[in-house]
Batch of 3 targets.
Target 1
Amino acid sequence: MHTRNKSRISKVADGIAPSMIRKLFNMAKSIDDVVDFTLGDPDVQPHENIKKAACDAIMSGKTRYSQNAGLLELRETISRRVKEKDSLYYSPLTEIAVTVGAMEGLYLTLLSLIDDGDEVIIPAPYYVNYKQMVEMCGGIPIIVNPSDKETLLVNGEDISRAITERTKAILLNSPANPSGRILTDETINTIAKLAIEHDLTVISDEVYRKLIYDSKPYLSIASLLGMKDYVVVINSLSKEFCMTGYRLGYILGPEDIVAAVVKLQENVAACAPLPSQYAAIEALGSRIDYSEQMIDTFTKRRDVLFDELKQAEGIRMIKPEATFYAMIDISGMGYDSSVSFAYDLLEKARVAVVPGISYGDICKDFIRIAFTLEESKIIEGARRIAMFTKTAK
Ligand SMILES: Cc1ncc(COP(=O)(O)O)c(C=O)c1O
C-alpha cells in the first residue's frame, strides 16, 4: 500500500488551534449534572411568530437558493430598520449583504480586504475566532492590550501605537465578548480619526448592541460624520433574537466591499438559508419589538449571578455593561493559570467555564461565565463555584 510521507493538511488549517471554549464545552458534555457556562448560546427561544415564519417558508416550498446577497425583501427590511433605529441609510441594492451568521459576515469581509501579510488590529480581550479568521485569510493579527489592565478596555492611544505601514483594518467589538464592556465615545472618535488619517477600514462587530444594560447609550463608529465609507458593520440575529442556529447575519458597508463580499459568497455558501431569511424578515420587520424582553431577562440573570458570587471567597466578578458574559477575576485563588482553575472547577464542582487565557494574555487571571442559562441553574452554578473557592483556596 502507498504511504504518504507528508501531511496533506494545509498550513492554514494546521495552524489553527482548536478553541478552548469548544474543548471545555465538549468535556462538560461528557460529565453528568454539569452547570455549563461555556457557550454564548442563550436558552431563550425566539418568539413564536419568528419560528412560524421559518416553518411557513419550509411548508410553502420557499427552500431554494436566494440571490447571493440575500432576498431583496430582507435587505429592504434591514435598510428600513437601520434607518428607523439608528438614523443611518444603507441601500438595499448595494450596501447590504445577508450572511450565514455574523461569523460568515466577518470572514467574507476579512477575505475581501486582506492580502498576504496585511495587519489587522484586534483589541484584547478578543472574540477567539477573530484571530483565527485573520490568519485563515493570510493576514497578521495584531493583538492590542489595553494600557489600563483593570478596565479590560483599549483606548485610542493603544490603537494608535499599533498602526504600521502594513495595517489594513481595525476589528472592533463593542459591546465586547468576553469583557462585556463598551468602548467610550472618546475612543470611538479617536479611532475614527485614525482610520481616516491612515486610510484603514474599521470592521465593527455590533452583534451585542441590543444587549446593553441600565439604558447606557451606544455610539456606533459608522454613525460618525464621514465614517460610513470606512466602516463595515457586522450584525446578526443570533444574540438579539436568540436565533443562533438559524445562522442569519448581515453586513452594512461601502459598495465596493459589499460587492466583494457578495462575489465571495457565491463561492462559499451561495446564500444564507432561505427559511432563516424569512424568519429574519419577521424578526426585523415586525411592529412588535421581539428583542425588548431579552434585556429584562438578562439583567435579572446578571444581577442574580453577581449577588451569588459576592459570597465566593478569592474571586471577583466584574459586572458587565452589556452582553451575557461575565469576567471573573481569579487572581486571588493562587492558581498558576486560568486553564488549571477551569479544569479543577469542572472536575471538582461540575461547573464548566472558559479560561480567560483564550481571549488573550491580558485575561490569564480570569474565567468567563456565559449566563445563558435559566436563573435556577445560574444560582446552582454560582453556589457550586462558591463552595469550590472555599475549599480550593
Ligand atoms: C463578538 C461575536 N461576534 C460574532 C459572533 C458569531 O455570531 P453568529 O452566531 O451570528 O455567527 C459571536 C458569537 O458568540 C460573538 O461573540
Target 2
Amino acid sequence: MRSLRPLEVLFDRSRGRRVPLSPALARVYGPLRLPRPSRRPFVLGNFASTLDGVVSLNVPGASGGGDITGFEAHDRLVMGLLRAVADAVIVGAGTLRAVPRHLWTAEHVFPRMCREFAELRLRLGKPAFPLNVVVTARGNLDLTLPVFSSGAVPVLIVTTARGAGRLPSTDLPPTARAVVAGRSDRLTATEVLAAVRAAGRHDVVLVEGGPHLIGDFFGEGYLDDLFLTLAPQIAGREASGKRPGLVAGRIFAPDHPLWGTLVGVRRGGSHLYLRFGFPESPGGVHTRPSKTATPPRTRRTAAGFHP
Ligand SMILES: NC(=O)c1ccc[n+]([C@@H]2O[C@H](COP(=O)([O-])OP(=O)(O)OC[C@H]3O[C@@H](n4cnc5c(N)ncnc54)[C@H](OP(=O)(O)O)[C@@H]3O)[C@@H](O)[C@H]2O)c1
C-alpha cells in the first residue's frame, strides 16, 4: 500500500490541547488541536466545495462529497480524523439520501487507517464509534439502511412529533433509537444538540451537513470551527441553480454576515484544507437560543418508534 504524502502545513493558528495522534496520523496531518471540554460541546463542521462554491453535483449517483473532491485520499483522511475525535456525527436526512450506504465512522470513509483511528479513540477514552445522528423533520427514512441496521454503530434519529409518527415500523437493533426533539415542523439546532447531549456525554460534535442542516447550526451560532476542503474543480451551475453551496435555506449577508477567522491552511497537491473559526454569537447580532431546551422524549417499541 502506497503511503500518503504529508499534507503541507502552510498556516496553523489553532489553539487548545494537542490531540495525541499516532506517528502515522501525525506524519500526514501534522498537529491537530482542539479546545478542552467545556460546558457545551465543541461543534466542528466538515465540508468540501469546488472552486465555484458547489457542494453537491446533484446528479443521481454522483451527488456525494467524493464527487466534489475527486475522492481525494487526503480529504478522506481528514474526514476520518475528524470522525475519530468526534463523540457524535450529525447529518441531515438529505445527506443520508445522497449516500444511503454510508456509515459515519472514520473506518468507513478511510479504511486504510482503521487501526490508527481505533487506537486514537481508545487513547481518547471514546467508544469504538461515534454516535451517528440523523436529523429528519418528515421521518421519511428507510430503516433497513446500514446506518440504522449495522448493530455496531450507535445511531440516533432526531425528529419531530410528526416525523416520529411516520417512521416505518421496522425491527431495529438495540444500537438504534429515535427521539422527538421538537413540536414544530422543523427542529432548531438547539433542539438537535439537546437531543444529542441527552444521549450521553458529547464533548466534540461533528456536523457533516448538508447545507440545510449546517445552515441552522451557523444561524444559531453553534458552529465553532469549519473544516473546508477546497477542491480545484469548477463544477458549474444551470441558471435554475439546483447545485447548492455550503448553506441552503438561510440568508446571513448583508444584514447579518457571518465572518470567520482563518485558523489553518494545509495543502495536498492542488487541494486546500482550510479551517475557519466562528465566534459564538456572530457580530453580536445573533443571540444564542437557550441551551436548556426541553429534554427530548424517547420511546422504543418492538415494532418501531413512537413519540
Ligand atoms: N460537499 C459536502 O461536503 C457535502 C456535505 C454534506 C452533504 N452534501 C450534499 O448535500 C446534498 C443534500 O443537501 P441538503 O441541504 O438536502 O442536506 P441536509 O441538510 O442533510 O438534508 C436536508 C434534510 O434533512 C432534514 N433536516 C435538515 N435540517 C433539519 C432541521 N433543522 N430540522 C428537521 N429536519 C432537518 C430534513 O429531512 P426530511 O426531508 O426527512 O424532513 C431536510 O429535508 C447531498 O447531495 C449531499 O451529498 C455535500
Target 3
Amino acid sequence: MLYQEIELFENPRDVIIPKIGCPPNEPEMTKFESAFLSGLLKKFKPKRILEVGLAAGGTSAIIMQTMDMLGVDSKIFSVDLFKEFYLNKELESGYLAEKAKELLPDVYHKRLLGKLAFEQVNEMGGDFDFLVLDTVHTMPGEILDFLAILPYLKNNAVVVLHDICCNAISKDRMWVNKLLLSSVTSNTKFMQQDIGRLNIKCHPNIGAFVIDANTRKYISDVFSALSITWIYMPEDNYLNAYREEYSKHYDDECVWLYDAAIKVNKKIKGCK
Ligand SMILES: C[S@@+](CC[C@H](N)C(=O)[O-])C[C@H]1O[C@@H](n2cnc3c(N)ncnc32)[C@H](O)[C@@H]1O
C-alpha cells in the first residue's frame, strides 16, 4: 500500500484552542485534521517548520502547542500573502498565533506577512523539514508555491496538504492540493479514512507526503499538472517572479512546461 496511516495526536488542539479564545469557526481544520497534523509532527519531530497560509493562526497555535508538548526545539515560520485576515479585514492575519505565542514563550514562532513564501526565504533561511500548504485550493494555487519552495526543503521533509477533498466539502473547483498529492512522486504518502467531516466513512480532507530523491527526479510531472484549467490567472508580476525562481532551480523541461501551462490557460481565459 502506498498510503500509510498516522497515529492521531489530539491533545495539542484540546489544550491550546480554549486558551486563545478562538471564534467557533476557528481553526479552519477539523479535530481529525488537526490530530493528523499533530500526529505527523509527533512522528517526525521537525526542527524547521514552514506554514504557508496562516489566516487567523489557529493551526499555527496548534503546531506551537504540539512542539512545546513534544519538547522539540523547533523554529516555526508562518507566511501569509495578506496582512489582513482574509475573513475579517479588521484583524491581522495570524492574530490567534500571536495570542498563543504569549502563552508559549519558549516556542520560536515567526509570522511573515505580505509576500510569497519563497520571497521570504532570505529572512527565514531554507532547510525546512516540514511544510504545511493551505492557501487558495483553486488552480494554480498551492502547486505554484510548492514548486517554488521545494528547493528549500530537506530530503525527508514532510509536506502536509490541507483541503484535499474540498471539492466535496465546499466549492467544487477546490482540488489543487489533491492534484498535487496525486501527481507528486514519493515512496511515502499519508492519508487515512476520516469519519468526521462528511459524517460518512469518507475520503479525508488532509494528506501528506515525504520528499525523497524521486520527488525531485520526477518533478516534471507536477509541472505538467499545471496545464489543467486555472480558475484564476495570477498577475504577470507574480507569474514572472515564479518563473525566475523556477529558472534558478529546475531544468529547461520544467520551465517549458510552466510556460506552456500559462499559454494554455491564457488561451482558455481569452487573455493575451
Ligand atoms: C484556508 S486559509 C488558511 C487556514 C489556516 N491554515 C488554518 O488552518 O486556520 C488560506 C490563507 O492563505 C492565504 N494565502 C493565499 N494565497 C497565498 C499564498 N500564495 N501564499 C501565502 N498565503 C496565501 C490567504 O490570505 C488565507 O489567509
